Amino acid sequence: METIKAIKPGPKPKTEGGNDDRRRRVNPETKPKHPDLKPHVHKPKD
């Protein structure tokens, strides 16, 4: 049997202060900059 291995993301880059870089996250204070996703509409079968 083959084993299934999960793909792990790499470590988050560190800032000069040694903390995790938070640029990849949407914080509540930066939420207005990021528009919401469009709703996905399923098309009925023909």
The whole-angstrom Rg is 19 Å
N-to-C terminal Cα separation, in Å? Answer: 41 Å
Biggest sheet record = none
Give the quaternary arrangement of the chains.
single chain
**SS-derived structural category:** little secondary structure
Report the principal-axis shape: flat
Strand tally, please?
0
Would you tell me the overall average pLDDT?
A: 77
Beta strand %:
under 5%
Q: Counting H and I runs of at least 4 residues, what is the number of helices?
A: 0
Q: Into which percent range does the helicity of residues fall?
A: under 10%
User: Segments where pLDDT lies below 50 for 5+ residues?
Assistant: none
Account of the 3D structure:
The chain contains no helices and no strands. It has 46 residues and is low in regular secondary structure. 0% of the residues lie in helices and 0% in strands.
